Amino acid sequence: MITPEIRLDEVSKFYGEVLGVNRVTLRIPPGITSLVGPNGSGKTTLMNLITGLVHPDRGTIEVRGISPRNPEQLMRFTGYATQYDAAPRGATGYEFVSAGLLLYGYSSEEARRMAWKALERVSLTDAANRKVAAYSKGMRQRVRLAQAIAHDPEVLVLDEPLNGLDPLVRAETIALFREFANRGRHVVLSSHVLQEVDVISDQVILIANGMIIAEGQIRGVRDEMHEHPSQFLIRCRDASRIASILFEMDHVTEIKLHEDRLGMLVWTRSRQEFSRALTRIAGNGSPIDSVMAADENVDALYEYLIGGGR
Amino acid sequence: MINNSFRLRQVWMIARLQLRRVFFARRSLWVYLLAFFPAIIFIGHGIEVKIKRERWGGHAVTTPAKLDSVREGDTEEEVIAKAGTPITDQRFRRRDEEEPERRYMRYYDGTRQVNLWFRSGLLVQKSTSNLIDFEEDRQVYAGVFQYFYLRLAIFFGCLGIFMNLFRGEMMDKTLHFWMLTPVRREVLLAGKYLAGLIAAVVIFTGGALFCFAAMLWPQETAEVQAFWRDGGASHAFWYAAAAALASLGYGSVFLAAGLLVRNPIIPAAVLLLWEGINGFLPAVLQKLSVLYYVQSLCPVPAPMDSDTPALARMLLAPAEPAPAATAVLGLLAVTALVLWFASRAVTRLEINYSTD
Amino acid sequence: MAVYKRGYRRYQGHLTGYWSRLLALPRFAWSRLMAQRLVVIVMMVSLFWPLACGVFIYVSNHTELWQGLDRGFTRFLEINPRFFVIFMNFQAVFAVLLAAFAGPSLIAPDLANNALPLYFSRPMSRADYVLARMLVLLGLLSPVTWVPGVLLFGMQTGMAGWDWFQLNWKIGLGILGGFLLWITFVSMVAMASSAYVKWRIVAGGLVLAFFFVLAGAGAMIDNILRVEWGSLLNPTLAVNKIWRWLLGAEALPGPEAYEHAIALAVMAAGLLWVLNRKLRPVEVVS
Ligand SMILES: Nc1ncnc2c1ncn2[C@@H]1O[C@H](COP(=O)(O)OP(=O)(O)OP(=O)(O)O)[C@@H](O)[C@H]1O
Ligand SMILES: [Mg+2]
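Above: query sequence and magnesium ion SMILES. Below: predicted holo structure tokens.
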């Protein structure tokens, strides 16, 4: 039996000199998985690799046991809505969605039905007979989603699917992802905004500079953090000295120094004492750029994990 | 479920989806123009001939015998006495020179027109030409086919059509839609090539044949009948076949070029050059040219323009033509070779829109 | 009070001068073009022929070098309008090639990427944009056309002396004017093609096709209809005849130079029309 998993082993992709992704090893189980990272971090590259639009320079990829080099089989159960905001010249929304379906072997009657169903699911039936080129940004986003789900794929890969959607449609779209995931399918989506996806995802993968920085259930991590000592993120210039001062104090349980020596993550049992200590340190002439309560802000974690790598 | 007959069906479906893009796009209008432009001119020629025939036929047609009796040296009055009133009669005099008046008369005997030039009232020059000359028009058609169709229209037309298939979709950022369908890359290539081929063959063979018909249209019925009896159909067939095979060959080359090279002007220029210097190359290399085979198929050798410079004449001198079967097979072999390269390239093809 | 009236104030500061604003575009475009290997190679190659012509002028003006040779050869070595017309014909072809390689990268990407609003949201009108792009091409084509032409003419004047100049000054003017006419026309073809198809790469092919196909079509009309006016369609022939007239070389058979000039003007008007139609910051999709 084939494991219903997307596996990437030591996958690297370079665009000439430029790094796309570097030595990525991942196991993506069914459910909603979000790829989160800043611009140029390699999200699109990773998705293109999974769907065979680009080929890895090194490493191997398998999507539910099928290599992306075999589009004939892979695309039967995979749908991909890319970030490329383009549609075939002169095609209407309906034509755009239905055209590809014939290639799956569906009869034209079936294809028609499926295309309309997909358009219905993204609430685009009204505009279905207008040219895609004349759609608004959100409509184009949705019609691409409709095209990706039209053949009812097991693996749905979506590049920034929530971009440019109004709140109502966004909620509907998220519900659609949930429904897919609940049926044991893969939904892999990407986003720049961690808050946006961390509530809806079963798994979040943080990526920066082409490398996987963290993966797991961020929500779970955050829940844990509430019970644990408070966590603060400090950015300062003289991190190692400040860390050594802080480490002398009783209320500080753990300090993680950031690689760039310009920041650290501090766990403390007492917020008051911690803030007093900081005031003292700052008063003694050690400049502190910023202090953030990491556990109250997903972004802090995000920034901590990713920001330093930039 | 996935077997070769299904793949063939996929090829045909891709071709059908593509055909609309190739045939009906406003962008391909120029291809039609290119293909049908010569026919328009031949039709213009036909209309001109028909009008003249009509108009001159209305006059009393002078019998050939009377016209033959007109000699250089006759006076104007003698000519009019022998042959009657001309259909055209013009007098003119150069303003700047103190020359005697000149006169020009034209007679028509039903098929031939006779032009007479007089100076100082004496006939100084007599020339006879057919109102329409089938033999000459067939030569002209052969020239149009070889120089215009093969070297310009089909060349640039295929450049446009076949480059569009991959390179064009890359520019449009729509190629990935094809690569996200459940088809093998080779199937995709075949489908697209088929679409381009159908379009090019229909447009250019259609254009060439239509032009051939337009050339025949005003000719004397008897001559046309004689032509059909005397293997005219095979001429038409070989022109059509040459146009189709040229589309096949150039199509594969430009399809491959669209996959391999970013800037098609360079392969186009290289190919133009290659086809141009072809006559100089050793025999083996000559056989790697599309034009070489296609020209071997043409039923009437193209006339050499009299004012082509000697150097160009050498450039254009066709190599010893290949027999028809060899030509067709050779062309198919060249095409297959190029398509094989293209299929290698298409499996390695990646979506990389940003760098264009 | 409407929000925008309080919040938005248009730029009222000092504007740089019109020409320095306009020339910003060519400045960047030239440096970009010069970074393209192909463009540089074509430019280099197109300077060989002027060099050869320079050597020819040198030889022809040093009578001692060819004293013993026969009359026919002496006639061949004479520097006359015909010599310059041949020189110009060669350079005309290079101008077309260069325009085909370099021209389309100027406008087509702007249209394909919807960059026109970026230009027009600055103090720059459509006409300015066209003019700026035109200047890029004219600047690029000048070093292979009228600049070597005028240099050659100057060289001949320097060697043959004032008397020759007095007799032949029309040639110098003809070279300058004739080349300017041609490179303006070629630039317009390059710009109109790239505005028309919007794809840089196809536009280059279209530029080549424009000259090849029109010449072919003209020859075809002449042959089929047994007339001479078909060659009016051939821009290369047209400019050749105009040059012959300008330089006072013997005329070619067929239509007169002024008729060709009219044909060229009509074509230029058509090209301008295409530019005007296609160079719009917004495209309406029906
Ligand atoms: N076609 C390409 N050619 C060269 N470099 C590329 C290409 N595509 C991507 N890159 C580079 O690869 C890296 C990863 O790009 P990628 O598009 O995967 O980022 P991303 O995470 O999707 O960014 P965004 O959030 O902006 O969509 C970037 O540094 C980018 O510059
Ligand atoms: Mg991306």
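Residues 223-228 of chain A have pLDDT under 50 and may be disordered.
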